[in-house]
Amino acid sequence: MAKRGSVGPDSEEAVKEAVQYAERYAAESGESFLDVLNRSYWETAEKAGQKGRARTAAGTVANVSLELDKDARYLENARALAHRTLGGARILGGRPVKRGEFLDCVAVGSDTEWGCTGTLVGPNTVVTAGHCRDCATRIFIGDDVKKKGRVVAVAKRIRHPEYRAGGHENDLMVLLLETPVEDVDPRRIAAPPLIDAAGDGRAVGFGNVDPRGLFGYGIKRLVDLPIASPACRGSVAGTADSMSYGCDAGLEIVAGRPLLERDSCRGDSGGPFYVQDENGEWLLAGATSRATKSAMSTCGDGGIYVRVDAYRDWIEGIDGARLA
After folding, report:
1. What distance in Å separates the CA atoms of residue 175 and residue 314, rounded to the nearest whole number?
2. What's the rounded mean pLDDT across residues 34-59?
């Protein structure tokens, strides 16, 4: 997960203070809540003695004018997420998963190395990104590919028949495993109404953690993100989401935004983007695909996730595939 600039769990009070300040100041000044939150977060973090840690472009976000700041849907969802969590791990940056958490999220790799992520949606069925086809001959079940876990071979790779080179359309692939995984609960796919109504979601993956997406692969991490567009069907300042974000209408989710410094990254490709139902259960909404059209860095500026529900019929039609 791209979480550069995070000051760590020891700064929870600094984050909480920044969120509460941003709520007050944004209401009084009319300034974007997200701009105030990012700026005040760094100020309070430095006051709390965190100045020596890595600082990023988030510190200058108030001086950046972006059309995407006019996306009222995103701002509302970001405010709701920040207010609800008040400085927990779900605010500014992600964290490694706890032991045994999100076991359905698996690493995907070739015979010699790991490079993508996927989601176990049935005992023998994994969903991942179409652009991961060349490095998808096995999966890893565990929290760190360098530590103890279980490796299961892939028997068959089925990329969506209308996949577009580069992963810009129908970026989805199904992996059928040689041996069913019976001791891990597969993840259920969220129904369309739940995804359409979601204001935020949780991305999980084994990917890299620097803005250029060059290092850090191997440890399973999670990060919670405000949703900008749950189905790429709206608009930003009069411009269709498909043009603003570079997503496919009706088929993809957009989450995060430029300079937020929370994002999925290289190596998270194909990994799960979950949404939570009214009972608190995390259900699979998307598969990590790529950065948004507006992204200024490889990671950290918002991402696009393929809506798995839109492809459910295709998945179920694959011979041998089993869904939860």
Report:
1. 13
2. 42
Domain boundary among 47, 70, 95: 95
End-of-domain residue from the set 63, 95, 127: 95
pTM, two decimals, is 0.74
Tell me the C-alpha to C-alpha distance, in Å, between residue 13 and each of 8, 55, 290.
11, 18, 33
**Distant-in-sequence, close-in-space partners of 59: CB < 8 Å, separation ≥ 6:** 38, 39, 42
Element (H, E) at 280: none
Return the DSSP state at 309: G
Contacts of residue 148, Cβ cutoff 8 Å, sequence gap at least 6? 142
Domain that holds residue 115: 105-185
Give residue-wise pLDDT tens across range 217-263. Answer: 788 988 888 898 999 999 988 899 999 889 999 999 998 765 455 55
Q: How many CB atoms lie within 10 A of CB 237?
A: 11
Q: Output 51-59 pairs: Cβ under 8 A, ≥24 positions apart.
A: 53/7, 53/8, 54/4, 54/5, 55/5, 56/4, 56/5, 56/211, 56/261, 56/300, 57/259, 57/261, 58/5, 58/259, 58/260, 58/261
